[in-house]
């Protein structure tokens, strides 16, 4: 079960990175949106690290 959860988090992490890349390519990127996406990406990374350390 834990492996499936980590894989789901990795998938979400990759999807958020894709959103970040897409937003950064726009002529006038939304800085607030980018901040929120990066914060969520970091939260997911921290959660993944917490699950893989145990």
Helix/strand/pairing class, anyone? mainly alpha
Helical residue percent band = over 70%
First and last CA, distance = 14 Å
Global morphology: elongated
Look at the structure and give the mean pLDDT. 93
Strand residue percentage:
under 5%
Q: What characterizes the major β-sheet?
A: none
Q: What does the radius of gyration come to?
A: 13 Å
Number of helices: 2
Please characterize this protein's 3D structure.
The chain has two helices and no strands. The chain has 54 residues and is mostly helical. The model has no long low-confidence stretch (mean pLDDT 93).
Question: Which helices and strands occur, and which strands form pairs?
Answer:
Elements: H1 2-25, H2 31-53
Helix pairs in contact: 1-2
In short:
With 54 residues, the protein is mainly alpha-helical.
Task: List the keywords.
54 residues; mainly alpha; 2 helices; elongated
């Amino acid at each position: 079960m834990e492996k499936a959860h980590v894989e789901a988090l990795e998938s979400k992490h990759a999807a958020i990175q894709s959103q970040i890349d897409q937003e950064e390519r726009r002529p006038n990127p939304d800085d607030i949106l980018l901040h929120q996406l990066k914060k969520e990406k970091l939260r997911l990374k921290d959660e993944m690290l917490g699950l893989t350390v145990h």
